[in-house]
Amino acid sequence: MQIIKSISEFNKARNTLIGSIGFIPTMGALHEGHLSLIKTAKSSCQNTIASIFVNPKQFAPNEDFNSYPRMLDQDINKLRSLNIDILFIPSEDEIYNKNSPDIIYDNYMFDILEGKSRPGFFNGICIVVAKLFDIVKPTDAFFGEKDFQQLRIIEKMSSDLNYNINIIPCKIIREINGLAMSSRNKHLSSSEAEKSKIIFNTLELGFTMIKNDTKVVEDIYDILNKKLKQDSVIKLDYLKVVDYNSLIEFSDFVSDNFAICVAGYINQVRLIDNITYLYSEDSSI
Ligand code: AMP
Fold it and tell me: What is the SS3 assignment for 162?
């Protein structure tokens, strides 16, 4: 595995690669969720490149950029054992020092769900992902369904900006109790991590209600909000039942293809999760 920090060195290495290139952008503190993306890329592409870059542009001033977990040595060991081809770990200057304008890209999904709670978040993500796509020039890029809205936005951006890259969605990897794996989980105490299972239990309840033909959105919200409040451990930001493709919230009735998206805080730690259903799939839990 080559570890590369500069764009010029990266370009040299990139030019020697032949065949398909699977790319997995991350912010590090790698867990089994990240590793599953890497394994999927390895199994389908001739070359695999991962990046680790904690992107300042996607954190608002009041957010956790400084305390975001950074565990580079452990990350390198994990990636070495998976035998990927290149790990790209650019500095902030390397990514942002060129005085070039940030990409101008916007779509309506920037302002809903996570975007409503975190203004500028998806703008920051699209800026860095576009820059990384331009540098890495992958044939395939792998994104987790854990960040379902991010996945939808990257799919749309790639299509709108004519990136010729296959965006490959990867299933959510969970802890045994159902909590979706996340780098931020490292900030939870073991009792908080245990109590956080209420999030996935609530999503599963919503999924079952809808599959059992409870389609009135208000009824679903009533039950799910009550369940989340059973134990005051989670400070809910939002829980929304939305269309699977457009992410637009259902106003009256849920239709066949849906996603239930939730975000909240446990003791300052922001957690997001979702459960989805696409007609013709069994389920995408
Ligand atoms: P991050 O390091 O949080 O930016 O995540 C890098 C990539 O890993 C993104 O595509 C995430 O959606 C994906 N990812 C993070 N957690 C999980 C998980 N629990 N299951 C599947 N993918 C995940």
Answer: coil
Give the C-alpha separation, 170 to 229, whole Å. Answer: 30
Q: Is 34 an active-site residue?
A: yes
Per-residue burial over 112-142, b if 16 or more Cβ lie within 10 Å, else e, is bbbbeebeebbbbbbbbbbbbbebbbbebbb
Q: Residue 30 C-alpha to ligand 1 middle, in angstroms?
A: 9
Instruction: List the one residue out of 263, 14, 234 whose CA is nearest residue 138.
Output: 14
Structure tokens at 28: 């590090």
Q: Is 206 in the pocket of ligand 1 (CB under 6 A)?
A: no
pLDDT bucket at 279, cuts 50 / 70 / 90: confident
Q: Is the CB of 37 under 6 A from ligand 1?
A: yes
Nearest to 89 by CA among 131, 51, 138, 133: 51
What separation in angstroms does the CA of 245 have from each of 177, 256, 275, 277? 28, 11, 13, 10
At residue 100 the predicted structure's pLDDT band, cuts being 50, 70 and 90, is low
Q: How far apart are CA 243 and CA 109, in angstroms?
A: 12
- Cβ–ligand 1 distance for 184 under 6 Å, the answer no
Residue to mutate, 32, 35, 37, ligand 1, most ligand atoms under 8 Å from C-beta: 37
Among residues 14, 34, 78, 118, the one annotated as catalytic is 34
Q: Which residues contact 90 (CB under 8 A, 6 or more apart)?
A: 5, 6, 7, 10, 51, 53
Ligand 1 in contact with 33 (CB < 6 A)? yes
